[in-house]
Amino acid sequence: MNGIDVLGPQISVLVAAGVVLVVDALFPGQRRLLPFLALAGLLTAALWTTSWVGRGDYQTVFDGTIVLDRYAVFFQYVFAGVTATVILASIDWVNREGRRQSEYYALVLTVCAGLMLLAGARDLITIFIALELSSIPQYILAGWGKDAKSSEAGLKYLLLGAVASSLLLYGMALLYGVTGTTILPDIAAAIEANGESYRALLIVAMTLLIAGFGFKMAVVPFQMWVPDVYQGAPTPVAAFLSVGSKAAAFAVAIRVFFEALGADFLSSDWSMIFAVIAAVSMTLGNLMAIVQSDIKRMLGYSSIAQAGNFLVGLAAISVAGEEFTLGASGILLFVAAYAFTNLGAFVAVIAISQRINSDRIADYAGMWKTSPFLALGLAFCLVSLTGIPPTVGFWAKLYIFNAAVRADLVWLVIVGVLNSVVSAYYYLGVVRVMFLGEPGTEQRFRASPSIAVALTATAAGVLVFGIVPAPLMSAARDAVEIFAR
Amino acid sequence: MGLVVAIAAVFLAVPLALLLPARRWRGLLLAAVPAGVFAYFVSLLDRAAEGRPLAWSAEWFPSLGVELAFRADGLALLFGLLIAGIGAFILVYAEAYMAGKPGAGRLEATLLAFMGAMLGVVLADDVITLFVAWELTSVTSFLLISFEQEKLKARKAAVQALLVTGAGGLALLAGLVVLGQAAGTYRVSAMSAEAVAGSSLATGALVLVLLGAFTKSAQVPFHFWLPGAMAAPTPVSAYLHSATMVKAGVYLLARLHPVLGDLEGWRPAVVSAGAATLAVGAFVAVHERDLKRILAFTTVGALGFLTMLLGLGTELAIKAAMVFVAGHALYKGALFMAAGAIDHGTGTRMVDELGGLRRAMPWTFAAVAAGSIGLAGFGPVLAFIGKEAALEAGLEDGGAAGGWALAAIVFSGALFTAAAVVLLRPFFGAERAPGHPHEGSAGLLAGPLALGALSFGLALAPGVIEGRLIAPAAAAVAGEPVKVSLKLWHGFNTALGLSALSVGGGVLLGFAVPRATALTGRLMGARWFPSGPKVYDWLYYGMQRLARFHTVWMQRGYLRGYIAVVLLTFVGLAWAALVRWGGSIERDWLTPAFYEAAVAATIVAGATTAIVHMSRLAAVTALGAVGFGVAIVYALFGAPDLALTQIVMETLTVMLFVLVFYRLPKLVDRGPMRRRLRDGAIALAVGVTMTVLVLASLGHQQGQPISSYFGETAYLEAFGKNVVNVILVDFRSLDTLGEIVVLGTAAFGVFALLRVRRWSR
To answer: Out of B208, B567, B741, whose CB is closest to A133?
Structure first.
């Protein structure tokens, strides 16, 4: 029963997916209930996760392929929260679309189950399956819209995703080939024993893994799908991709690289690769974001740059001992901060674009006058994305740059800071348009209740953790303790 | 705790400003808040002078050692008094300036928010606390500059100011983090110069911190945003761009002087930046015709002056800087507010359009006169004391830095005087103005007159501030106790001589300004002249162009291109690893039997056919042949079950392909040869890389193959005779479950697509 207990959250989410489908089939008149059934499933998962915090000891199940630790708990909360927000933000859109409602929620929940499984996966095969479990529904969701752009998005995402998956699979196979095991700690032990004799193969396996994870992280040069898919996919789905799947990629990358490939002679190499990717991602992502006139494309490019910021945490590990996991805890903090912030921004964009039927930044002019609540919420999230206090984004940036300074990566910090300046230009540019521009129409509009709840919750997270960051930080630190050496 | 309350009180007045009705008393009422804070700071002076300043701290971000910490030492109080004191006058002035126009409350609220942030900057004892407040000042000042949002100029200036100071702010953040790392603490009062000097990070910290301070305090070459920011309403200019925000950079230099002042780069970098700014600011000021822009450039010069003194860092220089901070804030505040009153009373700020105002606007004239004496720095004003001390500091120094400083002071002293003459000219001569000139209201005049009077009063009775305020402030900057005695009259000495010389020259120049500056003005207007705004525009539009070019180049939208980049990255990294770390390939290969060779030939032939054949069906069939070949390889090397699976899969795939391709149009064109060759090369590179990798990994088979374990335990533990089945449903049942869910989901997708087809009919 123990194994079932550990997989409780994932199972409850999948059950909720099934319930949503069945209820829709049996009582087609009760469609308004569907999102709440989905939310109930997520709540169950969150409560189940909470029940461990009391018991909270490290344990493995299913022959060591699944692990329950604080790290998994941290990410399960993140994924449950992200999915819940996405569902709240989807309600209006789904109602407007009218059909295929239950399928939509079921797919979103399936993605969530896959992401949650990733959080605790500690075996290469399990990781791959969890990744596919979360990816395939995303491919479908990206093409969920009715227009050709959405279909193009779905197809592009699927094809590029297949290439990335195959690279990942090659990497895993190579790793298994040279170490003889798929369980992460056993891989580490095998490498410890005589890994240096096949260093080249390990590095190649590593680069393949980086390519595979990099696709999901959306970092340069594996980022090409991002703008097309973000723009084409339905906005709630784009929000989900930008936060959920990115966070999951980092969750699993940290686990794989720290738990299996943490040996000194390897970590010095991968941290350098990550440092370079981080610098390039930040720079190119920001550079391309500044010329965008479509807010979804802009957020897409900026999410590439943000992923570069996350990667600073994976690069900043060269100090051994206590500091080994400093960068990793920074990523966790950043993931949480980014989840609040980017979701908040997307929620506001969803509400606004439904009302003005446009994603063009120029059409956001004067939003402050027509919808102060949405304008303020969006502005606040954009400020946080820039990394300006008093927002949670500031602390995340401060923390991760601090980790980089401690790891003697001052050059990377300088690149990051310069990029923050560039990002300020386009993030605050939107703020300027909203507050200083003249609205095309004087007609005021209100956000729907579900949007209001979602935006208030995320913005409150941004603000509260911006003023009192310590709890979030200690959670992130506790979570990565298992990787310390 | 009192310090927190003081800052909080200012912030709490923000909603008050928004809620109160637009009446004349609103400004007074709001001004009571900073006035109260002012009084509170005065009460703290003695503690600071005795060396036990009030301090308060609370944990904020424990894992980084970041605290919410405030400390009211002499330096903090000097700036705090200026911020609160001048702020009170500004609020009254703003109410009168806006004179019931809509948005007055919003302006006052933003001013208060800015004031609170500014108090946070100067009172902070923790560098991260300082930075948080610093960013708040940038954001609030952005709102203030763009207050008249319908003006394009205002918006552009606001963005410019935000980008320059925001960029500097981020450099500062990096610098402060590095500094904290070097010092081992974020507490300014706990940082030791030795620890920082001994760290390898010291130079990096210095450069980044200086960047932050220089951008905020408009030092050359970052000075151009400040005159641009004059697009703001006058109360904002008077407050932000004379007394407070721009001084934040100077404050930071002063604050960190005890920690960074002895580093090797400090003196040359800070002195040269300051001297250059002083000279440039003074030089450009005499070329301007707009009152506010003249004031803006003289402010740039004054900031350079202060920076230069802090760069010199001698006791005398520090004292001079502290006195001049106060002196400058008083006279420049008075001048800015008076300029607003002139604008109000006549409808223009252009000096050439004005004349003979002294009869119509006597009180404004008095304020401008008092301010101009301060600007010229000659007469019984506080700024004069500061300037004399600065000249003495330059003379005392004797080194190259002192010499340059001296030259800059004398040069700019003349130009400042000329600017002061220009400022006074609208009051003389025949009466001339676009509108009918009239005197400003009491609210408009109270501030400039009070500040102008203080500028004189404090100079005549310097004893009021020398021991209680200037000495503790200078001590905080020097990092050791400093004795201060201020005197207006030092007797006839070299400093006075230099001063008189430059002022005399300045007066002459002032009368000849339009003619004297004609040539240099034309030079500065030349297209090629790299003036600050132009360089900014080059950078700004250059970045946009680069971004556009890059985006077009990188994101073409072709899937083929995207995949090529991913694959080439992989190939590059893999070969880099192989070359760097070396891999060995086993040499003793088996000679293939003839049937093995035949299978291999089939696979190669199938693959080649699939590429070159123009018929889709033929290509798919050829691909099928490849699959069957692989199946035979499995069968030959002892994996019959795998071979069966492969055959089934292959058959199914070929059938699916055929079904789909049947509906597609005929393939007529494969694209240009060049592209095909390029794609072929990429494919070949990937294939070769994979082959090499497989061969290289063969030599590293570790331990027992896992199959023997499954073979042994399948029946004993799981009671199944078919090992593969046991693996699927038992040993790795969870993964199988996952796969089932994946497949189920994929089925959804297929179903959804089919439904789309039906709808689209």
So the answer is: B741
